[in-house]
Please model this.
Amino acid sequence: MNGNGTPRWLSAVIGIVVILTLWYLFSITAFTPAEGTDYTPVPTPLAVAQQLLDDGLRPYWGPFKVTIAEAGWGFLWGNLLALLLASTVLLAPRLEPIVVQIAVVSYCLPLVAVGGIAIVVMGGADYAGDTSDTAIFLASLAVFFTTVVGALLGFKAADKASLDVIRVYGGGRLTQLRKVRLIAALPAILNALQIAVPTAFLGAVLGEYMGATDSSVGILLIRLQGNLDATRVWVVFLLCAVVALLGYAIFGLIARLITPWVSGRRTA
Model:
């Protein structure tokens, strides 16, 4: 249930209906084909769905498989570094301003500019169909800030009384981290990881726009845009949204299973 008593599934259905309705209205009003042409920059949802049914998923699976792998590796390395950095702050509190500053700087860096440097330094895919190192790096960079901030806020949410008990029994900061702070931080960390899923996918796609890969979502979009194939461009956008939402939902389910006390469910 939401705060207003509306079931979440109903809210989701209403949101989808509103988005599709607005999409349809814009496509038949503000984005109609120019006079003398049949090019439609914003096709209707029905046209996009029909194109997807005609093509099937096979032509899109190859590029998406590469991008999902890049986003997965970027998600892993970016979040791992963020969690390790956040953990060092607990062991050495004086490092917190430095770690926060690093996280803020990483967030403020324009991914497009960083990608241009990364493609020169790191390169792209080594072989046809391989993942791009630049895309993985940008996916890692995209998730770093959110996870650092989420982990720090979670670690600070630990119960002070529990920390005092460990301190009284001779436990140090490392014991506090393992016994109390990690458990208290789980909800915030899992929420940050949930947000990082679509962010990592976006970072990977941006990295692919830098080039040095022959099969990926970014390269597919470049080709379709060059061919003025607006309907298939929207098909790819729609599939990107589905992949991102699916990853977001999976981590949301994992969070509910690992931290049932947050959602109000009781363990057996």
Summary: The two ends are 22 Å apart (CA to CA). DSSP finds eleven helices and no strands in the chain. The longest helix spans residues 173-208.
